[in-house]
Amino acid sequence: MDTDAALSQQLTAVVASTPGVTTVYATGSPIRVVLRTVTDAIGPDDETSAKVAVGREADGALTIGVTIGVTDGAPVPATLRLVGDAIRGVLATSREGTPIQEIDVRVCRIEDAAPLGTPLTGSATSL
User: Fold this and answer.
1) pTM
2) What ranges in the chain are assigned the alpha helix state H?
């Protein structure tokens, strides 16, 4: 498995376990999304799927893209910050010294989940 695919799997697992995130969706071109969806349906379990897009600029800098579903029981900006912090944490340890060009976190669905007032944990809870 190439290192970007392994990194994508690692980031997918970290993003999925971030408080406030309910789903990690496949990111990329529509054709890639369809291919990943089909592969996931017949292949690996969702927990090990590579749904986070990992790209590289000409200078080797990483570009990371992820699309998530979030719960309506937590502030969306705080959840986005937690996801960004989680991605940066993984990159700081597994790709130390590799420049980061961009981390693009998008929300495509807000779902009913946790009851209102459920505390969000992590460093991004204050706005």
Assistant:
1) 0.75
2) 3-16, 30-42, 76-94
